[in-house]
Amino acid sequence: MTDTTVVRVGAPGSPADARLLAEAAGAVDAPDLVLAVSRDGVRTVHTGGGAEPGPVGRERLSYELGSASKPFAGLLLARLVAQGRVRYADRAADLLAPGFPVHPAVRRITLRHLLTHTSGLPGLPADFYPQAVPRWSTDPYGGYPADRVVRAFLRARPRHRPGTRWHYSNFAVSVLGHTLAAATGTPWEVLLHQQVLAPLGLDATRVRPGPEGTDAVGHRRDGTPVPALDTGGFTAAGAVRATPLDLLTFLEAHVGGPDPRDPTLSAALTDVCRPLLRRGLRHAHTHTLTWFHHPSPYGPVLFHAGATLGQQAFLGFRPDTGLAVAATATRRVHRADTFVATAYGLLTETP
Questions:
Q1: What is the pLDDT of residues 67-110, one digit of tens each?
Q2: Which residues contact 228 (CB under 8 A, 6 or more apart)?
Q3: Residue 14 to residues 45, 47, 121, 288, Cα–Cα distance (Å)
Q4: I need a surface site. Which of 20, 191, 248, 292 has the fewest CB within 10 A?
Q5: Between β-strands 277-279 and 241-242, what pairing exists: parallel, antiparallel or unpaired?
Q6: For residues 187 and 207, what is the distance between their CA atoms, to the nearest angstrom?
Q7: What is the pTM assigned to this prediction?
Q8: What is the pLDDT of residues 163-203, one digit of tens each?
Q9: Do 335 and 51 contact (CB within 8 A), yes or no?
Q10: Do 149 and 178 touch, CB atoms closer than 8 A?
């Protein structure tokens, strides 16, 4: 069952976008699906999926973002830097555990290294897997709390010298979250709300499940529902939940939405969009502080995808044209999954 709505913001909506989203939705198999685009603030939202719709519209449910939470962490760090509260070059161990003896390579890891996946840390701590494997399909993270993440960092032996190689790491971004909380004396959830969510008006975005009936329910590949994700101590790397409408608001802020009243937020939004490093085979790909950065026929695109045990999300925008794409689905990712490719195509192939 599908439905396409046009949300007008200062101009008529686009029937062409409505047709485009309806066509794209046909390529994705999921119990619940939302494809949403914004062109200079004019929104078109397509909802659909194989499940019966509930009393709350799919576009108003909160979806687990998984790794697509990381742009929120990136914007938070950039704003704290703009406020002068921390620096990108600050060493994480010095902020997290001053005076604690750590490996020399750990001592060199900065906040920028943690966020840009250049810290030398593995994707997850080595001792994460023994407790996670027995419940890999139900609750792999919940048994690994914040204090274990911190201890694992302080005793780590990075594989590579910080700043020399790019290796995607949920571990590193989680350490960043705990480090910023320690540096500011403010819990991560409160810090994120104060510095990012509230200033941008993201009232339906949070890091914990909401009241009954307000959260989308994830599904395994066979359609079996899965419980809400518990990220344990990895909150900064993957705990954000948001409605597709809030995701559009977040993305619109990156493509010249309403000017934030606080200049530090404007500076942070500019900072996270700036190309910063090269990565991948022959260093062919560009990365900003927190976004993947690819070329397209319509200018550069910045994006990030994420997945949890039963949900997927995609966020992306084109700074040069004012196009933003947010997509969510409630089925676990699999090898032949078309969700990310479909959302990426809306971002890169749409005039």
A1: 999 999 999 999 999 999 999 999 999 999 999 999 999 999 99
A2: 64, 209, 215, 218
A3: 10, 16, 45, 31
A4: 292
A5: unpaired
A6: 12
A7: 0.95
A8: 999 999 999 999 999 999 999 999 999 999 999 999 999 99
A9: no
A10: yes
Please report, in angstroms and rounded to a whole number, the separation of the first and last CA atoms in the chain. 27
CA-atom Rg of the chain in angstroms: 20
Instruction: Tell me how many degrees the CA angle 50-53-55 measures, rounded to the nearest 5.
Output: 165
- Per-residue pLDDT, 259: 65
> Are 209 and 228 a contacting pair, CB within 8 Å?
yes
Query: C-alpha angle with apex 318: 235 to 239, nearest 5 degrees?
Result: 10
**126: its two tokens:** 């080595």
DSSP letter at 58? Answer: G
Distance, CA of 346 to CA of 35 (rounded, Å) = 9
Helix (H) or strand (E) holding 323: strand 323-329
Q: Tokens in use for 167? A: 């290796």
pLDDT at 11 over 70: no
